[in-house]
Structures are given as structure tokens and as C-alpha cells.
Amino acid sequence: xxxxxxxxxxxxxxxxxxxxxxxxxxxxxxxxxxxxxxxxxxxxxxxxxxxxxxxxxxxxxxxxxxxxxxxxxxxxxxxxxxxxxxxxxxxxxxxxxxxxxxxxxxxxxxxxxxxxxxxxxxxx
Length: 124
What we know:
Elements: E1 2-7, E2 10-13, E3 18-26, E4 33-39, E5 46-51, E6 58-60, E7 68-73, E8 78-83, E9 92-99, E10 113-114, E11 118-123
Parallel strand pairs: 2-11
Antiparallel strand pairs: 1-3, 3-8, 4-5, 4-9, 5-6, 7-8, 9-10, 9-11
């Protein structure tokens, strides 16, 4: 089992930045990819970014490409999501997820473990 805890959410004005963190604990000795997803009220959970086990490969949704940066520190079992140039449409609950794979999954169904989420609100 892997436990994931997100932090760093909050309220920010449009154009601002936030940095989300996701700390993993439990069976973290295995190779695992990490992803960030978000869910706006009344909408389905959608992919934002993913990073492979080594940090050498990343993938972004078109809506966040060029504004968000995903990274990881395996020594700390932590993945980050740096969010810049935030827009009101970025508002939602942000979830991190883990999948034991050497690949780079980007759909919710591919991930086995999920955090509780952290709220991000971008005001106009």
C-alpha cells in the first residue's frame, strides 16, 4: 500500500502561482509513476501532468502545457506541481496519484493509489 498526502493548495489571483506537493509513504521502494489530476465542480476528473519513476520523462495536458511543471524528489518520496500563470479555469480539487509502472500513465483508471486532494481556487 502507498499513502499519498497533498498540500499547497489555496486561493490565488489569476496570473499567480502555487506549488503543490504530494508526499508518499508506505511501499515506496518500488518503481512508480506519479500523476496530478484535477476535478472542477460538476466535471469529471481530468489529467494534468505525470512523471515517470526516474523523473526523466514527463507528460502534460494541453491545457496546462507551458504553465505547469511536474517534478519529483525520490529521496523525499515527494512529487511537486509548480503552477504558474494560473487562470480561473484551473480552479478545482487537485489529486496526486501513484502507479507501480516504469511507464507514464495519464488516465485515472491506470493509477492504483490516490491522495485526498487539495483545493485550488483561482480568482479573476
